[in-house]
User: Which sequence fits this backbone?
């Protein structure tokens, strides 16, 4: 099946939130009722940072937020050991529809985001993944992200990942 990679619009917020609720209810995430909230997804859309994979019939099958040069993320994760970069992309809230997990959709979506980051001239892509989210951690490692270590943030333990996009001279 051919999926379309696109930027989300305000009309997509309800479907993204439904996917998040379904993943929570299926026990496939550490997310709780407070995170991610509708306001987080709304901010992602407002900032032009929410990306989707859409099935041919129009259903949203996966979503992720990707922020260019996110100073707040850099500040909050200073202990992660991320490399210095002129420009970076920070990833948040990868969600693959519960009934479609394990079919490579996360891989497809993050691969599209990697290409987008390259087109923007980013040196690195960075993210935190819940230590207990084994499928996500495997996905990032399969995509060539390097695990840097643990970060404690918002009373949770995360693994910090980084993928270099540019070649050092």
Assistant:
């Amino acid at each position: 099946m051919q999926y379309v990679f696109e930027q989300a619009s305000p009309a997509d917020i309800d479907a993204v939130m439904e996917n998040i609720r379904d993943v929570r209810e299926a026990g496939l995430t550490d997310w709780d009722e407070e995170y991610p909230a509708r306001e987080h997804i709304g901010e992602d859309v407002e900032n032009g940072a929410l990306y989707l994979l859409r099935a041919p019939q129009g259903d949203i099958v996966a979503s992720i937020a990707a922020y260019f040069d996110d100073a707040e993320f850099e500040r909050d994760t200073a202990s992660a050991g991320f490399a210095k970069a002129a420009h970076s992309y920070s990833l948040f809230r990868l969600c693959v529809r519960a009934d479609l997990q394990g079919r490579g959709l996360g891989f497809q979506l993050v691969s599209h985001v990697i290409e987008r980051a390259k087109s923007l001239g980013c040196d690195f892509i960075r993210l935190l993944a819940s230590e207990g989210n084994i499928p996500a951690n495997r996905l990032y490692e399969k995509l060539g992200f390097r695990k840097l270590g643990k970060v404690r943030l918002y009373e949770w333990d995360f693994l910090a990942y980084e993928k270099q996009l540019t070649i050092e001279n």
Observations:
- Residues 4-122 form a domain with the Aminopeptidase fold (CATH 3.40.630.30).
- The chain has one domain: 4-122.
